[in-house]
């Protein structure tokens, strides 16, 4: 997914199997980050492992980290309804997109 000379940053939203919990994050290697959300260290008590938020339902790509972090903060400040509207525009059926990330 990376092109030589470019930077890749992703703002993403994960959910649990029943789609009742939403987690927003930012990272520069989405595929690797999804792996670590699903396979945390045994002692890790992160939000995503506690609530089993392993399923990617939304992401945006950015070329610089400041823009990505600002977008993550913006989305984190939104109401659940506003986040759901964003997800529905991008992924109307709330399909789990983990396998589509290369």
TrEMBL record:
<dbReference type="Pfam" id="PF01541">
    <property type="entry name" value="GIY-YIG"/>
</dbReference>
<dbReference type="InterPro" id="IPR035901">
    <property type="entry name" value="GIY-YIG_endonuc_sf"/>
</dbReference>
<dbReference type="InterPro" id="IPR050190">
    <property type="entry name" value="UPF0213_domain"/>
</dbReference>
<dbReference type="InterPro" id="IPR000305">
    <property type="entry name" value="GIY-YIG_endonuc"/>
</dbReference>
<feature type="domain" description="GIY-YIG">
    <location>
        <begin position="7"/>
        <end position="86"/>
    </location>
</feature>
<protein>
    <submittedName>
        <fullName>GIY-YIG nuclease family protein</fullName>
    </submittedName>
</protein>
<comment type="similarity">
    <text>Belongs to the UPF0213 family.</text>
</comment>
């Amino acid at each position: 997914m990376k092109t030589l000379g470019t930077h890749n940053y992703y703002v993403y939203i994960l959910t649990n199997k029943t789609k009742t919990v939403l987690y927003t994050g930012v990272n520069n290697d989405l595929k690797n980050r999804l792996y670590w959300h699903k396979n945390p260290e045994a002692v890790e008590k992160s939000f995503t492992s506690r609530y089993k938020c392993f399923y990617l339902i939304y992401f945006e790509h950015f070329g610089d980290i400041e823009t990505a972090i600002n977008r993550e903060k913006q989305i984190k400040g939104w109401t659940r309804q506003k986040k759901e509207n964003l997800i529905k525009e991008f992924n109307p059926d709330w399909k789990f997109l983990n396998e589509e990330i290369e």
